[in-house]
Specification:
By secondary structure, this protein is α/β, with parallel strands linked by helices. It contains 14 helices and 14 strands. The strands form three sheets. Strands 4-10-9-8-7-5-6 form a seven-stranded mixed sheet, sandwiched between helices.
Length: 362
C-alpha cells in the first residue's frame, strides 16, 4: 500500500462548519479569512436556501427537461454563440469534449499547464498529444508547422486564465496560429468567465475574438457560484456531443435547483460591474506588492522554496485565521510550490492588508 502514498501525501480534507466567500467557519467555530474561493464575484451569498433537486436519470433517458434546453439557449444568447450544452461539472465538460471529438489520427497540442480535466479528456480520445511550453507561441508554431500535413485534424487547447499561475493566455496569438495552420481551437474559460469582457463574457470577448474560438468551455461553479459545466460552439458540435459524449450520456442530469437559479444569477453577473471593478482594484494592489506584471488576475501565486516551506506557511496562516492553501507537485510543476491566493469581491482592503502583513509583503 506504500505506493498509494508516494504522490500527494500532503493533501488532506479540511472540515468547515460553514462556507462564505469572505469567511469560513472552522470546526471550532472560528471565522477564517477565505483566500481560497473561486466565487470571484461573491454571488454565492445569494439564494443560500437552495435545496438540490436532482434529476434521477441521464438526459438521454428521462432526465432532460424543457428547463435544461431553455437555459442552454439563454447561455448561447448571452455569449452570442450558436449552441451550448450543460454538463454536471466543468471537469466533465472538458473531458466530454476532448474524449469525444478528437479521434485516432488527430493531434492535440495543449499548453503544458492546462487543467487536468483537459489532459484527462485528451488521453481518452485516442489522438496523439503533444504539450507546448507554457504560453510559448514559437514552440506551438513549430509543432503546427511540423505536423500540419501528417494529421487529419489538429486541436489547439489552452485555458483562458490559468488556474494555478493566474496568467491569461495570448488568445489573439492562438487565433492567428490556428487560422494560419487550419487547426481548431478550444479555450477553457473556467476562471475568466464573469470577470472580463462585456457583461463578464470572458477573456476571449475582452480581446474581441470570442466568435473565432471554435469550442468554448467554462463552468457555473466559479463566478456564477452554481454547479455545472458548459460547452459552447456550433450546433453541429453540440449535436455530436449529445450523441457521442460518454460524460453526457452516462451520467445524471445537472440538478435543476442550480439551473433554475441561472437566469437570476446571470443577470446578477452581467450587472456586476462594481464587483468586477472592486476585484480588479484588489488584484492590482496585491500584484504590485508581489511585483507581478501583466493583466490583472484574481489568482496570484506566492512562490516559496519547496513544499515544506509552503506547507509550514499555510499552516501558520491558518493559525492566524487565514485560509490560503499550499499547492505542491504534482498539481504544479516540480520546484514550483506556492500558496495559491484567490481573491474575490467580498474581501476588503483591510483583509488584503491582513494577508500582506502575515506574508511579510508590507
Amino acid at each position: 500500500m506504500e505506493r498509494f502514498q508516494e504522490k500527494g501525501e500532503h493533501r488532506k480534507l479540511r472540515a468547515f462548519q460553514a462556507y462564505g466567500s469572505r469567511f469560513l467557519t472552522d470546526e471550532n467555530g472560528r471565522l477564517i479569512l477565505n483566500f481560497a474561493s473561486n466565487d470571484y464575484l461573491g454571488l454565492s451569498e445569494l439564494n443560500k436556501e437552495v435545496l438540490v433537486k436532482s434529476q434521477p436519470s441521464s438526459r438521454l433517458l428521462a432526465g432532460n427537461t424543457q428547463k435544461h434546453l431553455d437555459l442552454e439557449h439563454l447561455l448561447s444568447d448571452y455569449l452570442n454563440r450558436p449552441a451550448s450544452l450543460t454538463y454536471p461539472s466543468g471537469y466533465t465538460a472538458n473531458m466530454g469534449v476532448l474524449s469525444c471529438l478528437p479521434e485516432r489520427g488527430d493531434l492535440i497540442l495543449m499548453d503544458r499547464l492546462s487543467h487536468a480535466s483537459l489532459l484527462d479528456g485528451a488521453r481518452l480520445s485516442g489522438a496523439k498529444i503533444e504539450r507546448f511550453h507554457h504560453q510559448d507561441m514559437n514552440h506551438l508554431e513549430s509543432l503546427l508547422k511540423r505536423h500540419q500535413t501528417s494529421h487529419r485534424v489538429i486541436w489547439v487547447v489552452s485555458e483562458g486564465l490559468f488556474s494555478m499561475d493566474g496568467d491569461l493566455c495570448p488568445i489573439q496569438d492562438l487565433i492567428e496560429l490556428k487560422s494560419k495552420y487550419g487547426a481548431l481551437l478550444l479555450i477553457d474559460e473556467a476562471h475568466s468567465m464573469g470577470l472580463y469582457g462585456k457583461s463578464g463574457r470572458g477573456w476571449a470577448d475582452d480581446q474581441n475574438c470570442l466568435d473565432q474560438v471554435d469550442i468554448l468551455t467554462f463552468n457555473l461553479s466559479k463566478a456564477f457560484a452554481l454547479q455545472g459545466g458548459v460547452v459552447s460552439g456550433s450546433q453541429q458540435l453540440i449535436t455530436s456531443l449529445i450523441r457521442h459524449s460518454r460524460q453526457q450520456i452516462y451520467t445524471t442530469a445537472t440538478p435543476l435547483s442550480h439551473l433554475e437559479l441561472l437566469p437570476e444569477r446571470l443577470e446578477s453577473l452581467k450587472s456586476a460591474d462594481s464587483q468586477r471593478k472592486k476585484l480588479q482594484s484588489l488584484c492590482e494592489s496585491l500584484s504590485k506588492l508581489l511585483k507581478r506584471n501583466g493583466p490583472w488576475s484574481p489568482i496570484l501565486p506566492f512562490h516559496l522554496d519547496g513544499a515544506h516551506q509552503a506547507l509550514d506557511i499555510a499552516e501558520e496562516l491558518w493559525k492566524q485565521k487565514i485560509y490560503c492553501p499550499a499547492i505542491l507537485p504534482p498539481t504544479v510543476q516540480p520546484n514550483t510550490s506556492r500558496l495559491r491566493i484567490s481573491l474575490n469581491a467580498t474581501l476588503s482592503s483591510e483583509d488584503l492588508d491582513t494577508l500582506s502583513k502575515s506574508l511579510g509583503l508590507t
